[in-house]
Predict the structure.
Amino acid sequence: MTTETTATSSATEPPLVGTPVVPGLAYGPALLARTEVSPAAVEAYAARAADLGEEEALAAYEEAAGAVAAGFTARAEKTTGHAAEVMTASAGLASDRGLRNAVRKTLRSGENLPDALAAAVEQFVGLFTQAGGLMAERVTDLRDIEKRILARLVGEPEPGAPSPSEPSVLLAEDLSPADTAGLDPALVVALVTEKGGPTSHTAIIARQLGIPCVVGTEGAMSLAAGTPLLVDGTSGAVTADPDADEARARVAADAEQREALASWEGPGRLSDGLRIKLLANVADGESAAKAATGPVEGVGLFRTELCFLNRAEEPTVEEQADIYSRVLDAFAGDGEQYVVVRTLDAGSDKPVAYATLPGEENPALGVRGLRLAKGNPGLMTRQLDGIAAAAERTGTPTWVMAPMVATVAEAEEFAAAVHERGLKAGVMVEVPSAALLAHRMLEVVDFLSIGTNDLTQYAMAADRMASDLAHLTDPWQPAVLQLIAITAEAGIQAGKPVGVCGEAAADPLLACALVGMGITSLSMAPAAVRAVGARLASVSATDCEEAAEAALAASDPAAGRAAVLQVLEGR
Ligand code: PEP
Ligand code: MG
């Protein structure tokens, strides 16, 4: 479609443009997620609650908190996996005795119930923030619980995603796990948020549900409820009041294309035959077994630390070997498939009790990943022994890589330890220094794997968890692409594989540009593989090279996406 057609037959207002994270087109009325309890209702309730005695107020709190916890439990029962775990944890937090006791204490000092609730939550927010890591991430859940309890007290529906009566586009400032668990993709056809980046919770859930999603869309919450919206999860455009017939026709054509994806069976190759390995990111034996049923050629990233997030003590070598064997077993077949095991990436956003150093001022720049091995070398060698035992037991080709590598000396020492055990050794490229010295890294390792989530965070100096920095935490940033291109070129020169295993690999459009730079494998959430594979099958090596040039030359992510679309589709 030409720009001219869009301008004449579609909306009069220019579209809002955010960061596209799940491709696809959807059309439907805007449905606004409520985020606040009405202040007037809270004020009226506070006046009424002033007359309540301590025991009556506490009973009212317990009833409201109990109802919120029951709601979470009911939602947990309707869902599975990570979403169910999050719901169950939130139910526990809503009915937590410590929180209740903090409310009681403040009531005793003469505060009314809404203020007592606010003070108790604030106290817990402080504790969670101080603990850092995953506990700090639960602050969002805590604030969500506070609003829900308050809504129950004042007699309003709990904030969050309302249940639509017709297929709708859900707009929100940001979505909490509680809002997204149990969303029905038949009724919520797209997600658009004002905050959040490509690795945000909203993006992950949308990818799982397979619905188009655009995050970091400034102005989305100013759209009126019910406004017809066309959401383009490939370009990031959110168009209000488009021509209805044209929008429906485009969505129908897109749905047909997406259906065709389901029949894409792999292996990954371009239209002119160039093979690109498509691999899965997994967290444990269960997710590996599930991934093995899809069209992947192995695992490009096994995040081992995710097996140990709830462990107080380091597992023995034997226990580790059992855990890793379950993942390797899923790909123990023809010897063609392989598994890339990443050693413990403990620290920062993934604290592991027995490994992470407590009380770091700035854990993302602290003793994280491979850096832990310096002060605790046994941690690394025991893990390598466990991996080597699992590789021997299963016979699966096993590659091992270290996270958070910054120097060639670190890479060399790590590679020696892995080679001693007869396995292939590599390092992740997540720190700009590793990208800049990729050619020297490749003199000492067998392969590189680019972690674009962290590479973007460190290149742009933008916290990957910060929902206000979505415009910076975007792997389409030309500076990030430049670092990837340097790394890929080093791989070509050395004749060694260089893959991408961050979220960038799951973006079908970006995948073409990455391949054009010389990337040899892409590893991603299994749900994203068919869309990436089908897109790669539709383009040639020359198309990919042109896409890479266009993306690298663009001034910003939106211009990069538009330029690559222009190269690949002429639109
Ligand atoms: C990355 O940083 O891109 C990566 C794959 O590692 P993680 O997301 O686990 O930090
Ligand atoms: Mg990383």
User: Anything to note?
Assistant: Residues 1-11 have pLDDT under 50 and may be disordered.
